[in-house]
Backbone:
């Protein structure tokens, strides 16, 4: 489903941030991406969302080489990837409903379909009933659930999360991880960057470990 084939990445003026990284995630697999600060975790995730492009090698999503994607194809590739961030990246002046609806509105869905899908998505993350609230009145855990609802609202086959529990306490972090597992159980592929070793250790999933840009365990 997602394949890295000898991928190296270098930012202009810097050395290699990723070096000959190869791995394959099967459909429905859930894996953690770990490693020290600066190891290249965020960079690896950015290649999947085509926020950056690799310098050497191939990143394949459903067999499509992301490095060769034309700029006009990028929005369609991104619809296959639900992105989740540490700081949630919610629009503070929009309600929970509007935040979750955003990807569907951009994709041109009609009002009725948007409403149906947003409610289904909020239901999955346990936030039905909070549609009219603004993000700032929600707890950190609830805000991250809104971020997850937005990421899954158009049913992407792949979820990519960058330190999704970085701002949450251990109990809320575990809840968010169990939420990811529920998506995995219905066939979604999930890759989560995290340096929370104790949390990762509690969960029985594959661990990809980066050390100075090299994959040292997978
Ligand atoms: N846009 C950029 N331009 C130049 N160098 C960059 C850029 N983004 C990241 N880097 C460098 O690439 C290296 C890897 O950064 P990256 O953010 O991928 O690491 P990380 O493992 O996600 O770290 P952290 O856990 O601290 O978020 C670091 O040395 C960083 O300074």
Residues:
């Amino acid at each position: 489903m997602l394949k890295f084939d000898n991928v190296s990445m270098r930012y202009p003026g810097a050395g290699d941030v990723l070096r000959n990284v190869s791995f394959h995630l099967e459909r429905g697999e859930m894996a953690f991406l770990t490693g020290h600060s600066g190891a290249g975790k965020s960079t690896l995730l950015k290649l999947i969302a085509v926020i950056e492009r690799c310098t050497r090698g191939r990143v394949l999503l459903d067999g499509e080489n992301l490095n060769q994607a034309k700029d006009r194809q990028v929005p369609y590739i991104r619809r296959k990837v639900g992105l989740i961030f540490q700081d949630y990246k919610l629009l503070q002046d929009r309600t929970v409903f509007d935040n979750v609806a955003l990807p569907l509105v951009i994709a041109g869905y009609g009002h009725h379909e948007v409403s149906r899908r947003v409610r289904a998505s909020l239901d999955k993350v346990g936030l039905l009933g909070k549609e009219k609230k603004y993000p700032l009145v929600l707890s950190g855990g609830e805000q991250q659930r809104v971020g997850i609802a937005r990421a899954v609202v158009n049913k992407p086959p792949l979820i990519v999360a960058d330190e999704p529990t970085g701002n949450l306490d251990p109990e809320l972090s575990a809840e968010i991880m169990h939420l990811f597992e529920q998506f995995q159980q219905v066939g979604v592929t999930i890759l989560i960057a995290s340096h929370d070793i104790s949390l990762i250790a509690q969960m029985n999933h594959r661990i990809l470990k980066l050390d100075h840009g090299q994959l040292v365990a997978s």
